[in-house]
Amino acid sequence: MSFAPPSTMNAPDLAASAARRPRRRALWLGAGLLVLSLLLGVLGLGVGSTGLEAVWQMLADPVAAQIVWDIRAPRTLGAFAAGALLGLAGAVAQGLFRNPLADPFLLGSASGASLGVAVALVSLGISPFAASWAVRLGLTGAAFVGAVAAVLLTLALARGVQHTLRLLLAGVVVGVVLGALASLVTISFPDTLQSMQVFMLGSTAFVGWTACALMAGVWLLCLTLAWMLARVLDGLVLGEATALSLGLPLAPLRLALVGVLALATGSAVAQTGLIAFVGLASPHLVRAVVKTPHAPLVVLASLMGGTLLMLADTLARGLLAPQELPVGVLTAVLGGGYLLWLMGRSRR
Amino acid sequence: MSRVFPMSWCRGVVALLLALAAQAAWAAGVQVTDERGVTSTWSAPPQRIVSLLPSLTETVCELGACARLIGVDRYSNWPAAVKQLPQLGGGIDPNVEAVVALRPDAVLIADSSRAVDQLRALGLQVVVLEPKNSADVRRVLAAVGQLLGVDAQEPQRVWRQIDAAVSAAAQSLPARIRNARVYFEVNSAPYGAGEASFVGEMLARLGARNILPASMGPFPRLNPEFVVRANPDLIMVGDQNFAGMAQRPGWAGIRALREDRLCVFTPAQSDVLVRPGPRLADAARLMADCLRNKAP
After folding, report:
1. Which of A112, A204, A206, B284 has the most CB atoms lying inside 10 A of its own CB?
2. Contacts of B241 in chain A (CB under 8 A)
3. What is the CATH code for B174-294?
4. Which of A67, A209, A323 sits opposite B229 (nearest CB)?
5. Band of the pLDDT at B28, cuts 50, 70, 90?
6. Distance CA B45, CA B60 (A)
7. In whole angstroms, what is the distance from residue A90 CA to residue A103 CA?
8. Where would I find the H helices in B133-276?
9. Is A66 in contact with B228 (Cβ distance < 8 A)?
10. What pLDDT score does B16 carry?
11. Which residues of A touch B228 (CB under 8 A)?
């Protein structure tokens, strides 16, 4: 399959006068995604265990109002924030490694994050759904450490980022090995088996205001950092030599980008578990509409990821109500379906 | 002499008849048909038994044949004696090699296990039994009794005892518990035990109401807000899953949590509650105690 190479192949052209049209398209896409996510957000308040209900009627009843404000609102916003973090991580990973297939899962960082969470659960004996700040921060920290370690391990095994195939293979190896270690930890402590199993499936069901606020904060931080470092990503598209000749201090900036990638992945994984394909598909979906440099791309991919996961979360609640589908299953179907379609189209 | 001769002759005939009867029983051997319709026969009741499901292990021991067990799965933990036996992996994924190495003359295994065909192909006598509700418990008791070659009355006696204890537990409860609406959480995903499950069956027999109707299947995965809306009067949950329950978004308002109407079971108690086996009576007593103390 041949995916569009990381958009910014034509970054230099964009500097020219032709830049105006893509920029307008990017703005339209951003606005469209914002409107869509707002609509989905309102819909998300109305979809729950009883199917679609009118929110204004629910607010009259105290129990129903509590359901809207304490359950549906944070999980809807939380789904957006987690998706946005994953979309951002995907865009950063694909630019940083100059590889359209790079995503938080393929580089092993998601497996590293889940290993971090498994170790934290076992050693601290806490529930992955506890809502207190200490627990949420602790799990996020553990996931972050795991994600950073995994990415560094992948880079060490691949001996740098130059060789695409080696990088992907190293990422797969690290992902599989760390995933197996996480399973080993879980199996050796059967007490954590159930909570880990739930966690691995990925779920937005118990995202509360604490987790939501944490993810929103991390998202703003990562988005700002990625925006500031986007020039490095643009430079890297043209090759390392060119990037160096542009006067960019590559090593520290790259490390900073790895940090952004790991922080975004880690905090999403710590709150919602393993949710596949959002990080991979979001940047591709954006590129299918508009070619932009990395600064707008990371923002758009982030919005796209948020919208995607919000859609998946709403479907997960609504399709089988009052039962619920694991949201990770839905994102895999949606994202996988899109990539298949992309493959079919590029073959023609 | 004429008086003695018939006496000893009689004795001889009786002895001969007894021997013949024993011989006949021996020749007929033991025959058990399992849940997959496969009939296994033994010339004598098996003496080296491997059990790969906790409820089957408990059934064998309940029928007084614990000493014949030579290996169990890693989840079998009752009675305490079975913890000394070699553990042969999980029930779904047993260590086939270890099972074969023990040279059992009967392997008791769940239908959901992946090793059934493999163990059969290796020439072992495999009996597939998987109790899922209380009717199954009775049927499995009879089948295991047959396999062990115990008196046919014995499984029936055990069953009558269990049944009587469950009825007694139900009758000991005050009328008020009939209005108690109960949520039994199996897993914090959350999965709950519906009316169609073994746990739900027990709740119904004790007279309590379940917030999960039979139409949702035995163990539905729920949207957490369903529980908030159903607002159960009483929650039964294992202590592993209870951690953090009050902090789940919106759950603090549920009546059971507000009024501390919670039964938090230890892992050992949870085992009793979720295993459809001969400890059904203990399960009934545990649940009845919970209802008596905590139901509004």
Report:
1. A112
2. 194-195
3. 3.40.50.1980
4. A67
5. low
6. 13
7. 5
8. 134-148, 153-171, 198-206, 224-230, 239-242, 255-258, 267-274
9. yes
10. 56
11. 63, 66-67, 71
Mean pLDDT for all residues in chain A? 83
Tell me what the pLDDT averaged over chain B comes to: 89
Check: CATH 3.40.50.1980 for B31-150?
yes
pLDDT of residue A9: 44
Cβ contact, residue pair A49, B222, below 8 Å: yes
B255 inside 8 A of chain A by CB: no
CA distance A127 to chain B (A): 6
Torsion over CA: A23, A24, A29, A30 (sign): positive
Domain ranges of chain B: 31-150, 174-294
Q: Could you tell me if the ipTM is greater than 0.95?
A: no
DSSP 8-state symbol, A5 = P
Phi, psi at B70, each rounded to 5°: -115, -5
Interchain contact A136–B (C-beta under 8 A): no
In A159-208, which ranges are continuous DSSP H helix? 164-188, 193-201
Residue range A114-130: average pLDDT?
78
β-pair partners for B47 = none
Output the pLDDT for position B256.
Answer: 95
Question: φ and ψ at B185, to 5 degrees?
Answer: -95, 130
**CB-based contact A321 B223, cutoff 8 Å:** yes
Copy the structure tokens of residue A33.
């995604």
Residues in Cβ contact with A105 at an 8 Å cutoff, skipping those fewer than 6 apart = A111, A175, A274, A276, A279, A280
Tell me which residue has tokens 């450490």.
A145
pLDDT digits 0-9 by tens, B68-96: 999 999 999 989 999 999 999 888 889 99
- 3-class DSSP state for residue B106? strand
pTM over 0.80: no
d(CA B229, CA B251): 10
Which chain B residue has the Cα nearest residue A193?
B240
Inter-residue contact A216 to A73 (CB < 8 Å): no
Per DSSP, the residues of A246-263 read TT--HHHHHHHHHHHHHH
Percentage of chain B lying above the pLDDT 90 cut: 73
Burial B115-124 (b: 16+ CB within 10 A, else e): bbeebbeeeb
Instruction: Encode pLDDT of A225-267 as tens digits.
Output: 999 999 888 888 887 788 788 787 877 888 888 889 889 998 9
Q: What is the pLDDT of residue A6?
A: 46
DSSP state of A4: P
Domains along chain A with CATH numbers: 7-16+39-347 (1.10.3470.10)
| Element at A21 (helix H, strand E) | helix A20-46
Buried b (16+ CB within 10 A) or exposed e, B152-165: eebbeebbeebbeb
